[in-house]
What does this fold into?
Amino acid sequence: MQSLTHKEELLKTFSDVRSLSFQAKKEAHNGEEKMNTFLDAINDFKAMLNLQNEKLSDIIVRLEKLTWFNNLDEDSMMLLNDLIAVAKDIHSSLIRQYVQMNNARMRGLANETIKEFKSEIDDLKETYQDLESVFFFLPDFPDFKETTKQLSLI
It folds into this structure.
């Protein structure tokens, strides 16, 4: 009777080991696929963020060029005011995106690309603040007007 019990235990153990062996071999392939899918998603995220960084960089350069404009008419000033408002709105949206990337940052995923993204966001803010200062706040200061006049002669 005891040998029957041992045989049953052997068969059950064999069955469990056999199932585990089969599952491990099957999962090895599935695990590799899952890892590749995960890495592809990270690469897609980085590519999307790099593209967004390039677009931001281009916009920043274009906004910076506007700071050198002078003698703008009323319509142009209105358009500039609207442009600054849209840039502020974009900045707010991008900050929310950056905050949502916190999990990726904490796990060390795409850190350099995310740092570049944050840098571009900061540059955007500095640029629209410069525009606002140059056209709406600083012109009220006489020293600024004189300096601007001298710079335009260069």
